[in-house]
Design goal:
mainly alpha, about 0% strand, about 290 residues
């Protein structure tokens, strides 16, 4: 399998994207931006269609459209209700542009499908280099401002009390998220890009409350899902995205089930402890009386 160049490119690109997506995904979930990440995937579709129309690399179109969207959302909306309204309006505009560019492009339907649903096995070595540079940039910037983003993401009230500029941090994080979106699309497609950015991190939150462990687990889930998805796609000739989405979904529901079981056990143990404790108190009271 790894004797073929296209499979080597697929595994390298998938590994890079999974590490980055698992890392930034933890903060996406902490900041309640799963809807925005889903929206950016559709905006990315419009950007890719625009790039195809111009005859350039789709990643460049993805970057232009998603960064523009991120800046507008971060600049125009700090409050949650205004942010949702702004995202909905901008989503409609960008989707309309995407359909317009698709109707004007001479490319075949299969090429359009690769944008919508991803085609990791068609990634070239030049694409891998570009993905590596952009992913490394996201990881480095996220690591440099890790403390501020972590503080603002997990304790926004405390961050404001200390004087952190939440609006500036939000815009900065959205720009990083837009770059992450742009380089995730070639692997899982514009429509399912949010799978790698949200599902592994969501599953990791059921296992730990420590951010560092959460990031490590999220990256692990993303890597396993991507590697297994690419391998299964090679042996079955079925879409890679289907396997990646299914495996990540299984991770999430399995961890969710364990979480519910442990929570129920904890509740039962607490009730038993209270019953035993009050019985002991009552017995002690009877003895003393």
């Amino acid at each position: 399998m790894l004797n073929y160049d296209f499979m080597q490119n697929a595994f390298i690109a998938g590994t890079i994207v999974s590490i980055m997506a698992g890392y930034i995904g933890v903060f996406v979930m902490a900041r309640n931006m799963s809807f925005i990440s889903h929206t950016l995937s559709h905006v990315g579709f419009a950007g890719a269609a625009f790039a195809v129309f111009l005859g350039i690399n789709p990643i460049y179109g993805l970057l232009i459209f998603t960064i523009t969207m991120s800046y507008l959302v971060g600049h125009l909306s700090v409050k949650a209700f205004r942010r949702e309204a702004t995202v909905s309006v901008m989503l409609g505009i960008f989707l309309g542009l995407g359909l317009l560019f698709l109707s004007l492009t001479p490319k075949s339907t299969s090429y359009v499908n690769s944008i919508l649903f991803g085609s990791v096995v068609s990634i070239t070595r030049d694409d891998v280099k570009l993905i590596f540079i952009l992913a490394l940039t996201v990881i480095i910037l996220l690591s440099i401002f890790y403390r501020k983003i972590k503080f603002d993401s997990f304790d926004s009230i405390g961050a404001k009390a200390l004087g952190l500029n939440s609006k500036l941090i939000s815009i900065f994080f959205l720009v990083l998220l837009s770059v992450a979106t742009s380089i995730t699309v070639p692997v899982v497609g514009a429509l399912l890009m949010f799978v790698l950015l949200t599902v592994p991190a969501s599953a990791a939150r059921y296992l730990t409350n420590k951010v560092g462990y959460m990031i490590a687990i999220s990256i692990s889930f993303a890597l396993i899902g991507t590697w297994a998805g690419i391998a299964l796609s090679y042996y079955t000739s079925l879409p890679t995205t289907f396997f990646i989405a299914s495996i990540e979904g299984l991770f999430y529901f399995y961890q969710f089930r364990i979480f519910l079981i442990l929570r129920n056990k904890k509740t039962i143990l607490n009730k038993v402890f209270k019953i035993v404790f009050f019985n002991l108190l009552f017995t002690e009271f009877l003895i003393l009386s």
